[in-house]
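Thread amino acids onto this structure.
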C-alpha cells in the first residue's frame, strides 16, 4: 500500500502517528467511540486516518465529507468491510446489511425496496393501524406496561407485514431465533474479536483440531441463522397471500426455471433482513467489546419511540401542547391515523427533534471503499473502512456529546431541545436539514426500512398522546424524578425509566375498550404449521 501511496504522490489523510508493529491499535477506541473519534477530529480535522494490523479506518466528521464520499462518490464508498468470521464462517453475508457491494446486494436491496418504499409502506398502513389498536388496549390494561406493549407492537407489525405471522409469545422461535442471530452480529461483528479475522488462513483448519472452539461457535450461529431465514419463509408457501413473503413467493419463476433457486434465496433473505434489520445488528461493527444485547431495546424503532416518550414525560408543557394539537386536528372521539399527519405539525417536529438530539446510531454503520481514491489531495486506499461520525461537531466540549446533529450552523442553539426549529408559518420548515436524512445513514446504503420505522413510531406516539397521559414519577417536592438519561453504547437508547400511562378521561378509556381489533392478516403460528 505504501508504494501505491508513494506513486500517487499524495499523503494519507492526517491522523496520529501510531507505533511500530501495531500502528494505531491504541488509538482505535474500545468504548464511547463516537466521543473519542470526535476528539481525534478536533485535533486532525474532518478526515482522520488510522491503520493497525492491516485494518484501515477513515473517520469523517462533517456533513460536507459524508456528502462528498457517501453520496457524490457513492459507487466507491458503498461497500462493507471484509469480516472473515461473521461472513465466511457464520454465513451472515446472506444479510444485506453485511453484504459486499455488488450485484447480489443490488438485487436484494431492490427487492426489499419494492416492499418497503413509501408507497408500499402505505399499503401496510392498515396492518399498522390494527396493531396500534392492540397496543392501546394493552396499555389500558397495564398502565406500567409501556415497554412490553411497545415491544409487542413493533415486533408484531414487522413479523406480520413480512410473513403474516403472529408470534405466540416471547418464547416463540420466530422471536428467539432472530434474537440469537442478532447476538451473533454483536459477538462476531467487531473485527479482530476472533483470530480468524486477523489470520484468514485459519479457516482451513478442521473443527476437530484442539483450540478451534470458535469453529463450533460459528457453526452454531450459522445453523440458527439459516433456520431463522428459511423457516418463516417456507411456512408461507401455499398460504393465503397476506404478507410480503407470500407475495414474493407467488412471483417466483417456476420450480424448473434455471433461475428459480437464486430468486428463491434472494426473496428469502430479503424478507429475513426485514426482521433482523429492524433489530440492532449495527452495534456489532464497532470496537466496543463489552456489549450486552438487551432483547427489548435491540429493536431500533422501539429505542426511538422510548426516547420520544421519555421527552414527553419530562416535558409536561410539550405533552400538553401535543395533546392540544391532537384534540384540534383529530377531536376527542377517535384515534389519529396517517391522514392526520400533515396537520399534526408539532408532533412531527417533536419527533424530528428527538431523532436529532439522540440519533440511534451515532456512528451510523461503517462503509468501505472499493478502489484507491484521491480525495481533496489525500490518498485513500481501497478496502478502507469509512465511518461517518454523525456525532461530531466542530467544537468539542468535554462531557457534552457533539456531532453533525449539534452543528450550530445546521441547527442554531443545538443543545436546546426545541421542536419549533422545524416549524415555520405553521408548517414543517423544509429549509432546515431533516434529521431523518442523516439519522438513518448515508448514500446508497441508507436504511431501507426507515419509512416503515418513521410511520410506525409516529402512529404509536400520536396514539398515546390522543388517548393517554404520560405521568412521570415525581419527587417529594413535586419535581419530575426521571431524567433525560441515555445508556452508553452504540445504539443510543434511554436508560430504563418508569412512567404510568393512564387514560386521559373515562370517555377515552371507554373508547379504547370498545375498539374492535380486525385482523385479517393474523395467522397464529400453530395454524400456520
Ligand atoms: C429507528 C429505527 C432505525 C434506525 C435509526 C435505523 C438506522 C440504520 C442505519 C444507520 C443503517 C446503516 C446505513 C448505512 O450503512 O449508511 C441502517 C441499515 C439498514 N436498516 Fe435500518 N434503521 C432503523 C430501522 C430499520 C427497520 C425497521 C428495518 C427493516 C424493516 C431496517 C432495515 C435496515 C437494513 C436492511 C439495512 C442495511 C442496508 C444496506 O446495508 O444496504 N432498519 N439502518
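Threaded sequence (529 positions):
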Amino acid at each position: 500500500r505504501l508504494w501505491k501511496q508513494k506513486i500517487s504522490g499524495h499523503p494519507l489523510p492526517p491522523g496520529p502517528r501510531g507505533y511500530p508493529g501495531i500502528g494505531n491499535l491504541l488509538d482505535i477506541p474500545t468504548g464511547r467511540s463516537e466521543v473519542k473519534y470526535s476528539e481525534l477530529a478536533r485535533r486532525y480535522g474532518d478526515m482522520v486516518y488510522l491503520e493497525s494490523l492491516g485494518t484501515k479506518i477513515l473517520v469523517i466528521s462533517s456533513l460536507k465529507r459524508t456528502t462528498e464520499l457517501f453520496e457524490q462518490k457513492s459507487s466507491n464508498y458503498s461497500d462493507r468491510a471484509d469480516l472473515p468470521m461473521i461472513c465466511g464462517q457464520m454465513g451472515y453475508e446472506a444479510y444485506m446489511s453485511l453484504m459486499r457491494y455488488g450485484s447480489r446486494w443490488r438485487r436484494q436491496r431492490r427487492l426489499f425496496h419494492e416492499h418497503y418504499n413509501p408507497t408500499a409502506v402505505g399499503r401496510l398502513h392498515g396492518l399498522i393501524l390494527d396493531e396500534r389498536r392492540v397496543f392501546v388496549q394493552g396499555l389500558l390494561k397495564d398502565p406500567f406496561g409501556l415497554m412490553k406493549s411497545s415491544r409487542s407492537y413493533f415486533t408484531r407489525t414487522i413479523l406480520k407485514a413480512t410473513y403474516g405471522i403472529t408470534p405466540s409469545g416471547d418464547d416463540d422461535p420466530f422471536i428467539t431465533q432472530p434474537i440469537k442471530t442478532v447476538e451473533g452480529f454483536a459477538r462476531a461483528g467487531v473485527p479482530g474479536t476472533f483470530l480468524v479475522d486477523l489470520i484468514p488462513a485459519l479457516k482451513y483448519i478442521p473443527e476437530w483440531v484442539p483450540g478451534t472452539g470458535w469453529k463450533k461457535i460459528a457453526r452454531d450461529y450459522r445453523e440458527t441463522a439459516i433456520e431463522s431465514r428459511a423457516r418463516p419463509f417456507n411456512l408461507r408457501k401455499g398460504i393465503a397471500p397476506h404478507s410480503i413473503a407470500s407475495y414474493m413467493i407467488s412471483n417466483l419463476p417456476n420450480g424448473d426455471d434455471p433461475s428459480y433457486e437464486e430468486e428463491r434465496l434472494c426473496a428469502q433473505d430479503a424478507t429475513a433482513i426485514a426482521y433482523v434489520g429492524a433489530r440492532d445488528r449495527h452495534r456489532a461493527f464497532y470496537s466496543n467489546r463489552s456489549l450486552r444485547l438487551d432483547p427489548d431495546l435491540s429493536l431500533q424503532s422501539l429505542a426511538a419511540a422510548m426516547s420520544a416518550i421519555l421527552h414527553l414525560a419530562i416535558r409536561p408543557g410539550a405533552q400538553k401542547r401535543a395533546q392540544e394539537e391532537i384534540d384540534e386536528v383529530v377531536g376527542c372521539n377517535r384515534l389519529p391515523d396517517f391522514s392526520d399527519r400533515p396537520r399534526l405539525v408539532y408532533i412531527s417536529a417533536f419527533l424530528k427533534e428527538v431523532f436529532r438530539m439522540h440519533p440511534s446510531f451515532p456512528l451510523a454503520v461503517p462503509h468501505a471503499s472499493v478502489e484507491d481514491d484521491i480525495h481533496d489531495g489525500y490518498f485513500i486506499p481501497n478496502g478502507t473502512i469509512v465511518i461517518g461520525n454523525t456525532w461530531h461537531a466542530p467544537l468539542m466540549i468535554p462531557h457534552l456529546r457533539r456531532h453533525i446533529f449539534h452543528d450550530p450552523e445546521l441547527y442554531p442553539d443545538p443543545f436546546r431541545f426545541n421542536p419549533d426549529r422545524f416549524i415555520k408559518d405553521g408548517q414543517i420548515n423544509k429549509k432546515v436539514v431533516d434529521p431523518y436524512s442523516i439519522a438513518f445513514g448515508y448514500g446508497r446504503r441508507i436504511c431501507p426500512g426507515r419509512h416503515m420505522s418513521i410511520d410506525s413510531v409516529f402512529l404509536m406516539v400520536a396514539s398515546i398522546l390522543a388517548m393517554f397521559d404520560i405521568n412521570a414519577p415525581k419527587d417529594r417536592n413535586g419535581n419530575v424524578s426521571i431524567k433525560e438519561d441515555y445508556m452508553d453504547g452504540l445504539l443510543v437508547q434511554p436508560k430504563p425509566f418508569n412512567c404510568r400511562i393512564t387514560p386521559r378521561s373515562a370517555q377515552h378509556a371507554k373508547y379504547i375498550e370498545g375498539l374492535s381489533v380486525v385482523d385479517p392478516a393474523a395467522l397464529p403460528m400453530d395454524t400456520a404449521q
